[in-house]
Design a protein that fits this description.
It comes from Aerosticca soli. The chain is an all-beta fold. It has strands spanning 3-4, 19-23, 35-40, 43-62, 65-84, 87-91, 99-105, 108-111, 124-145, 148-171, 185-213, 216-227, 247-259, 263-279, 293-308, 314-328, 333-337, 344-348, 360-372, 375-386, 402-413, 417-424, 432-435, 452-454, 459-466. Strands 4-5-9-10-11-12-13-14-15-16-19-20-21-22-25 form a 15-stranded antiparallel sheet, with no helix packed on it. Strands 1-3-6 form a three-stranded mixed sheet, with no helix packed on it. Mean pLDDT is 92; it is low at 3-10.
Length: 468
């Protein structure tokens, strides 16, 4: 029989010597010792409609002070069809190959997969319809006093939404017991689960800017707000009155700006806090204790945008950031099974780095402008570096670092033509942006195989534009 990877759902326990496994493409028998894995193929179709309108009035109350008030209204609808799951059986190797499997038991042939290697036809096949109205009233005041500039703004927002999701019943699609892949497919049964979501929350922001000179200033901003739920997050799957809490954001930042013919620099530091994610407190063994509570994240960092032009037509641009972010206020540990050892463990996420967020990221772009009588050409090269980052909240699956080289030649011909030749990842760097987000802990299987999203390979594009 085939040996399944720990990354799949376990052995199939087929009768000894009864299975026939062949490759979907190219045919040929599969080695019975081949490690295999499942991969889900998803299809989500969304039909969206939106109508919005904003009305505002501004009035100068006195010299240097302007007050603005406004109303924003929006109505939007969504019709969805989802098909999630659709597990395909394939080799647990790079460049995986789909496998189809059948077996004989008591003289009858059973089909574990269909002709494409699909083990099932999805575990979440829904139709969904939602509509929502957003109503916002806001006030903003801007006041300039000499070299000082103050702005204070606030708003109150209401989101009122309803959502209907079809209820599911398991159905044998073709009526045959031998085709195991479609014997219990969840399909809409004609009834719907209805959810009403109605929440109101204020937001505000305060900004201060002081001009040290005509080309130099320092600034500070504080703001606090919330993120409302949407049809796919915090509304679907919840009952009316028990929808997920608002996710709330608090931000403080300050910075320095400078500009001259030689240098441009914008340097800022920030402290951001998020909360509103629900979790269940547990003891050190993962046993639930107390009532569900909320956790979030705490981040501090530095952002830099700048350029230097040491001589005419030549410029070096730099964009970089440093992020020290971690999860906070989570008093629990999460039970999970290690894919490598097969043992169960309980790990805490409080204080762990934010998933997929590198601590250091920067891009350096030197460019040169060549003027001609008919127009100009700008040539540039960009070096980008992304530092160490992890896959999930456990911080156990490292995704490594990567660096890429890009280039570009952009020509402006007369007043209307633009010709661009641009290339990305010219060295075919292998870098991982994320791994399987549905696996907690180490995501690599027993053979060292990891399902992950890589960078796109080398790509070169030629584009011609006519500007009217």
């Amino acid at each position: 029989m085939l040996y399944t990877s720990n990354a799949s759902m376990g052995a199939f326990n087929l009768p000894m010597g009864s299975a026939q496994a062949t490759y979907v493409k190219g045919g040929g028998a599969v080695d019975p010792n081949q490690s295999v894995i499942h991969q889900g193929w998803w299809h989500i179709h969304k039909h969206l409609k939106n109508l919005s309108n904003e009305f505002r009035l501004s009035k100068e109350l006195f010299e240097g002070n302007t007050l603005t008030g406004g109303v924003y209204l929006a109505h939007y609808e969504m019709d969805d069809k989802w098909a999630l799951g659709n597990q395909m059986l394939m080799t647990n190797t790079p460049h995986a190959r789909p496998i189809q499997v059948s077996y004989v038991q008591n003289g009858r042939t059973y089909y574990l997969t269909d002709g494409q290697g699909l083990l099932d036809y999805g575990g979440y096949n829904i139709a969904e319809h939602g509509n929502a109205n957003n109503k916002v009233f806001y006030l903003s005041d801007v006041w300039r006093i000499g070299r000082w500039l103050f702005d204070l703004s606030g708003r109150i927002e209401n989101q009122n939404a309803t959502n209907d999701v079809c209820n599911l019943s398991n159905v044998n699609l073709d009526g045959r017991d031998e085709t195991l892949y479609d014997n219990a497919v969840p399909v809409c049964n004609g009834t719907y689960a209805h959810t009403r979501y109605d929440k109101t929350h204020p937001s505000w922001t305060l900004g201060i800017n002081y001009e040290l000179a005509d080309n130099m200033s320092v600034y500070f901003r504080a703001n606090k707000g919330a993120h409302f739920g949407d049809f796919d997050n915090a509304i679907r799957g919840y009952t009316t009155g028990n929808t997920a809490p608002l996710q709330k954001i608090q931000n403080f930042e300050g910075g320095f700006k400078y500009q001259s013919e030689l240098i441009y620099a914008d340097i800022s530091v920030y402290h951001r806090q998020f909360n509103g994610l629900v979790y269940q407190p547990t003891d050190s063994q993962g046993v639930p204790v107390g009532q569900p509570s909320l956790y979030g994240s705490d981040s501090k960092g530095v952002n830099l945008t700048g350029s230097i032009s040491p001589f005419k037509n030549f410029k070096v641009q730099l964009v970089g950031n440093y992020l020290d972010g971690h999860y906070s206020h989570n008093n629990s540990c999460f039970l999970y099974t290690d894919l490598v050892t097969g043992s169960s463990q309980c790990i805490r996420i409080n204080g762990k780095p934010l998933q997929r967020q590198p601590k250091v990221r920067y891009a350096v772009t030197p460019s040169y402008l060549l003027p001609f009588a008919w127009g100009d050409i700008t040539a540039y090269v960009t070096f980008t570096h992304v530092g160490p980052h992890t896959q999930d909240q456990s911080a156990l699956q490292q995704l490594g670092t990567y660096s890429t080289w890009d280039f570009g030649l952009i020509a402006h011909v007369q007043d209307h033509w633009q010709i661009s030749l641009q290339g990305t990842n010219m060295t075919n760097e292998l870098g991982l942006t994320e791994s399987n987000s549905r696996i907690f802990g180490t995501a690599a299987g027993t053979d060292g195989v990891i399902l992950a999203r890589p960078l796109e390979g080398r790509e070169v594009n030629l584009q011609v534009k006519y500007l009217f």
